[in-house]
TrEMBL record:
Pfam family, one: Glyco_hydro_3
Gene3D superfamilies: Glycoside hydrolase family 3 C-terminal domain, Glycoside hydrolase, family 3, N-terminal domain, Immunoglobulins
SUPFAM superfamilies associated with the record: (Trans)glycosidases (SSF51445), Beta-D-glucan exohydrolase, C-terminal domain (SSF52279)
Keyword terms of this UniProt record: Glycosidase, Hydrolase, Signal
Protein name listed in UniProt: Fibronectin type III-like domain-containing protein
Native source organism of the sequence: Turnera subulata
Keyword Signal among record annotations: yes
Span of the signal peptide: 1-24
Length: 625
């Protein structure tokens, strides 16, 4: 029987520790919280959202200076003489309720909570509905823990980095409100840390206003305007000389608007809602959906359990436990290691191969080689972990090029049921459909700087070769698209208050007579509609991520190459097809940010690209007065 070699990679990116709470307007009245294990929340205390600005301001006026100072930072001491309760603001829930912050703890009453895959893994699913479902499940467990006096109500999650280009990710949360208060962090331009001489606390990020508006602020804008966050946490760094936590422009002008926390009562949640079967199964599903198949020569995968009865399972991550849940974790309900899960499919010969992640010592290699020689298939589970992790990825070009490695799966930090997900994918119980989304972060500027030989970064600006491109990911089946219908132009009539705005074009370009209109001046009601049919021509069910990009018209100076404007993950049964409909906002989808950091809608012929240039079509923007 032919030997097949499989290679699994874990990797991760930076999720930083936190320190300062930016601002949160909706203070839970009548709520007490944990300030230490013996000093906990009155069980089932009444959390209401009676945020009365007049009352709040009156309360602040009655406080002495030292009383005010005691309310700064995350551990608020309260003011007993005014009936203001103490409160611990710091709890974490990036991928499950975590005990990293002092506001939350585990003990005999609540020993664990569901540990979902970390965000790098669930983001690779490109499935908005999955993210919302996980968010709901985490908030249910968090609220249940609060009711039991074991957790706070304010969670310093989600964490935003610019490599995942969201589009409408935050939309629609209001229809399924979270049961706790969430907080987007770290605001803003907090992308480089612990890299060369950069330390986040002293780093002064020099950021062009154009990059600020276009890339660093946009996700926070979406978090606040479209999402359900009730607070924003400022970052540690300075931006152009000003500490973000002391920048009135960033904190007061830019974000203190349109905030809205929805707060129904959830007093019935309790122990039964933590680590429920439903949540644990969701953790497994999320890990499967976030798995990315990067290489699969001659359909090495999936393995047929009838033909591959003996498995050599090699590598320091094969029996991973803590490494699976990454950082910002809590105490998981029950971890299933890759080794445990693979053992259900065949006779496993486990050899660690390397004593630690860096594999500096090859004394353990020989037994691993012997095991591989005897087995029907060899599965290497390797990569990095928190001991050597930073936000940088791992160069796996050697594995891509090596013909003996038949297949590569990327799984990130897949959470407590990651082992099951890996086995499900290897043995074809689940057909992978995740896509890569990470790009290295080594410097603040986004755009290439020719004079410095700086190539730019992210798929939006970097025009060099990559080991695997953004949104790369294979399937066990054959999926293909056809364009069913598309709107090709949009006419926007300008009123007398809306003006044409000049943007920079390269010298020889044709410049339209009304080059653009500033987004702030427009109503932005227009939509682009189109429909794509996804066909599954293979003999396995599968899911496809349809990624849609827009490309600005030729000739505009220093704009992006392309940008993600939408995506949908669809399940398509073997031999079947699914129509996927996109209705995208014209301003959001076709905007560019000019030198002066104005968001503008350029007129002329933009291009919509679907997938890896599989389909593209033009959309013409016309302005008339
Ligand atoms: C909680 O607050 C609601 C309305 O504010 C009130 O009707 C209810 O009696 C309170 N419950 C407790 C246990 O104090
Ligand atoms: C997206 O996630 C949801 C879970 O919320 C799941 O039910 C659905 O099957 C997923 N979609 C695809 C295409 O994988
Ligand atoms: C915040 O902005 C408001 C106006 O929007 C202004 O009245 C207030 O003084 C500002 N606060 C600070 C601290 O700058
Ligand atoms: C896997 O690791 C656990 C500890 O995390 C250990 O108890 C167990 O013996 C290991 N399994 C094997 C097969 O080495
Ligand atoms: C290499 O690892 C083996 C097994 O863990 C150990 O016995 C040996 O001392 C190590 N050698 C070095 C040079 O670290
Ligand atoms: C990418 O770089 C190549 C070579 O420098 C150039 O010819 C091409 O126009 C560039 N593409 C874009 C979209 O900037
Ligand atoms: C997918 O469809 C396009 C036309 O829409 C065709 O050119 C291409 O060959 C097809 N690819 C596969 C793998 O079938």
């Amino acid at each position: 029987m032919a030997k097949s070699h499989t290679f699994l990679i874990f990797t991760n990116f930076l999720i930083a520790y936190l320190f300062i709470l930016g601002c949160a307007r909706d203070v839970p009245t009548n709520s007490y919280n944990t300030l230490g294990h013996g000093d906990a929340t009155p069980i089932g205390s009444n959390f209401t959202f009676l945020c009365d600005p007049k009352r709040a301001s009156d309360l602040v006026k009655q406080m002495t200076l030292s009383e005010k100072v005691l309310q700064l930072g995350n551990t608020n001491r309260g003011v007993p003489r005014l009936g203001l309760p103490k409160y611990e603001w710091w709890s974490e829930a990036l991928h499950g309720v975590s005990n990293v912050g002092p506001g939350t703890f585990f003990d005999d009453l609540v020993p664990s909570s569901t540990s979902f895959p970390t965000v790098i893994t669930s983001a690779a699913s490109f499935n908005e509905s999955l993210w919302k479902t996980i968010g709901q499940a985490v908030s249910t467990e968090a609220r249940a823990m609060y009711n039991l006096g074991r957790a706070g109500l304010t969670y310093w999650s989600p964490n935003i980095n610019v490599d995942v280009e969201g589009t409408e990710d935050f939309k629609d949360l209001n229809s399924r409100p979270l049961k706790v208060s969430s907080c987007c962090k770290h605001y803003a331009a907090y992308d480089v840390d612990n890299w060369k001489s950069i330390v986040r606390e002293s780093y002064d990020a020099r950021v062009a206003e154009q990059d600020m508006v276009e890339t660093f602020l946009r996700p926070f804008e979406m978090c606040i305007k479209e999402g359900d966050v009730s607070s924003i946490m400022c970052s540690y760094n300075r931006v152009n000389g000003i500490p973000t936590c002391a920048d009135p422009k960033l904190l007061n002008q830019t974000i203190r608007r349109d905030w809205d926390l929805h707060g129904p009562q959830y007093t019935s949640l309790g122990k039964k809602d933590i680590c429920s079967d439903e949540h644990v199964e969701l953790a497994r599903e999320a890990a499967r959906e976030g798995t990315v198949l990067l290489k699969n020569i001659d359909q090495t995968l999936p393995l047929d359990a009838n033909n591959f009865k003996t498995l050599a399972v090699i590598g320091p991550h094969a029996n991973a436990t803590a490494a699976m849940i990454g950082n910002y974790a809590g105490v998981p309900c029950k971890i299933v290691t890759p080794l445990d899960a693979l053992s259900a499919y065949g006779e496993v010969d486990y050899k660690v191969g390397c004593g630690e992640m860096k594999c500096r010592n090859d004394s353990l290699i020989f037994p691993a080689m012997q095991a591989a020689e005897k087995a029907d298939a060899t599965i290497i589970v390797a990569g990095i972990d928190l001991s050597i992790e930073a936000e940088r990825g791992l160069d796996i070009s050697f594995a891509k090029a090596n013909k003996k490695i038949g297949a590569i799966l990327w799984v990130g930090y897949p959470g407590e049921k990651g082992g099951l997900a890996i086995a499900d994918v290897i043995f074809g119980k689940y057909n992978p459909g995740g896509r890569l989304h990470m790009l290295p972060m080594t410097s603040m500027p986004l755009r290439p700087v020719d004079s410095l030989g700086y190539p730019g970064r992210t798929y939006k600006f970097f025009n060099g070769s990559t080991v695997f491109p953004f949104a790369y990911g294979l399937s066990y089946t054959k999926l293909n698209y056809t364009l069913k219908s598309a709107m090709r132009s949009t006419h926007i009539k300008l009123n007398k208050f809306q003006h044409c705005y000049g943007i920079k074009y390269r010298k020889e370009s044709h410049i339209p007579h009304c080059p653009s209109v500033r987004i702030d001046d427009m109503d932005c009601k227009e939509k682009i509609n189109f429909q794509v049919e996804v066909k599954n021509a293979g003999d396995r069910d599968g899911s496809e991520v349809v990624v849609v990009y827009s490309k600005p018209l030729e000739g505009i100076e220093a704009t992006h190459i392309k940008q993600v404007i939408g995506f949908q993950r669809v399940f398509v049964p073997a031999g079947g097809s699914k129509k996927v409909k996109f209705v995208l906002n014209v301003c959001n989808s076709l905007r560019v940010v000019d030198y002066n950091a104005y968001s503008v809608l350029p007129s002329g012929g933009h291009t919509i690209i679907i997938g890896d240039d599989i389909i593209s079509f033009p959309v013409h923007v016309n302005f008339s007065s």
